[in-house]
Design a protein that fits this description.
Layout lengths: L2 H7 L1 H18 L4 H24 L4 H43 L7 H12 L2 H38 L1 H9 L7 H43 L4 H12 L4 H18 L1 H31 L3 H15 L1 H17 L12
Helix pairs in contact: 2-8, 3-4, 3-6, 4-10, 8-9, 8-11, 8-13, 9-10, 10-11, 11-12, 12-13
């Protein structure tokens, strides 16, 4: 028996080799990892949405896909046309307030702006402006790159969904090729990862629901208008673990400033801080541990380490990756989700 044949028959060694190859390829493609993960997430959610609807009504999958993606595009268009002008107007109001403060310093009673002015007079303002401009340019570039990744991922997931059957039939050809063992092992790992990711996504959905309820109640007590639309925005952002709650404070702060001035902004920041602490230290560990049967301590440590290693994406894929390795190492099998 040749070395190659022995290698093929040694399933454990063979799968270790295939997994190492996959990790190495992902490392080489790390600049595209955002688009890869977003495409996977969009496709995963779309597949489960279609399955969920078809469980109650026998609607053709193609019609569901076209309708759902068209609805998403419409909602994005509605949000951009309705809320972006509001944010621009409120930003202009804040800018005019600062300009008015400097033009009429003797008549201004805004204590916060006076404190900021006093601080700027004592600091190296020119250096800070240069550093701030550099950071702003960096953030704008990152935001533009993220926006492009989101658009491309959305388009890729759409094409995958409308050609799901053709994709499945074509992909099965690899399982019957001369190197079928390689693609069979890739399929094995992909199936395991999709299963663990599904468990975590279900947990994150419940976390998003709780976050939305808590934040919406607080907004109602403060006196915010248009609560239904704000609740939808908060829910969508809450699907991003931890970071989504922080991102939501940007538009909420603008709206709060236009509604009640700096006091409402402080209230919003306090609410976001409390919700963020509740998610990070209560909901995330508790829901994740209940869905993955991991101890809360392990879950919390994994979130900390994965965020340190992979940034914001680590908060999303950290638990799935850990449970994935637990499964393939036979440490703790994960209960499978319903197959698509």
């Amino acid at each position: 028996m040749s070395f190659y044949e022995k290698f093929i028959q040694n399933t454990r060694l063979r799968r270790f080799f295939v997994l190492a190859v996959v990790i190495f390829v992902l490392f080489l493609a790390r600049s595209m990892i955002t688009m890869i993960l977003l495409t996977f997430i969009f496709t995963f959610l779309a597949l489960h949405f279609v399955k969920f609807v078809q469980h109650f009504a026998k609607i053709p999958a193609l019609f569901l896909v076209l309708a759902s993606y068209a609805l998403i595009v419409f909602l994005i268009y509605f949000a951009v046309t309705k809320y972006v002008p509001i944010l621009i107007h409120q930003t202009a109001q804040m800018y005019n307030s600062v300009v008015h403060f400097y033009q009429n310093p003797e008549n201004n009673h805004n204590q916060l702006l006076m404190i900021i002015d006093s601080y700027l007079e004592k600091s190296t303002l020119t250096t800070q402006i240069q550093n701030g401009a550099g950071m702003l340019l960096h953030y704008v570039q990152d935001l533009g790159s993220l926006g492009l990744s989101v658009i491309l991922s959305f388009i890729l997931s759409f094409f995958f969904m409308i050609e799901k059957k053709q994709m499945a039939d074509f992909s099965k050809l690899f399982l019957k090729s001369d190197f079928d063992w390689f693609f069979q092992d890739i399929y094995y790992f992909a199936d395991k990862f999709v299963n663990t990711f599904g468990v975590v996504m279900e947990a994150q959905f419940f976390i998003a629901v709780v976050n939305t309820i808590l934040t919406t109640i607080c907004l109602a007590l403060i006196g915010f208008p248009q609560l239904p639309s704000l609740a939808i925005m908060i829910f969508i952002l809450s699907l991003i673990p931890v970071a989504g709650v922080i991102i939501s404070c940007i538009p909420l702060s603008f709206i709060a400033y236009s509604q009640g001035g700096i006091n409402d902004v402080i209230y919003i920041l306090v609410v976001i801080l409390v919700v963020h602490l509740v998610e990070s230290y209560v909901l995330n560990p508790k829901f994740m541990s209940s869905k993955t049967d991991l101890p809360i301590f392990y879950t919390f440590v994994i979130l900390l380490l994965s965020e340190r290693l992979f940034g914001v994406w680590g908060l999303i894929v950290g638990i799935p990756i850990f449970t994935f390795f637990l499964d393939i190492l036979k440490v703790k099998p994960i209960q499978p989700v319903n197959k698509l």
